[in-house]
Amino acid sequence: MKKITNKRAFYEYFIVQKLEAGIALKGTEIKSIRAGRINFKDSYAKIVDGECMLLNFHISHWEKAAFFNHDAERPRRLLLHKHEIRRLKSRTEEQGMTLVPLEIYLNEQGKCKITLGLAKGKKQHDKRETIKERDLERGAEDR
Known about the structure:
Helices cover 32% and strands 35% of the residues.
C-alpha cells in the first residue's frame, strides 16, 4: 500500500515538526485502510487525559462486515511514548499549535502508522504565497 497524504494540511498549516505514531484500530478498520477508503477532512489530534486521540478521522465501513462493523468517525487512540505526549501537550497549549494527520501508511511489518504534524495555522496571505510557489513549480516543470 502506498502512503495516503493529507494535501490540505500542507496548504492550511505551516508544519513545524513531524512525528510517527501507531494507531489502535479494529479489524474492519484496517481492511478499509488497506482499500484506501479514508478521509482526512477536518481531522486533528488532541491530548485527552494523558492519551493522544485522533478525532474526526473518517474510515469508511467495510461492506462485507455485517454487525461487527466499526463507527466511521470514532475517536482513535494514537500510540506514543509518555514523554512525547507531554512534550506535545506543552507545545499545543502554550504556543497555540495543533496536531494534524499528514499521512497514513502500512510499514514493512504490516502495522498501520500515521504521521502527525505539529502545525501552526496560515493566514490568508500565506496561503496565496503557497499557491504562487506551486504555480511557479508547475511552470518550471512544463518547460
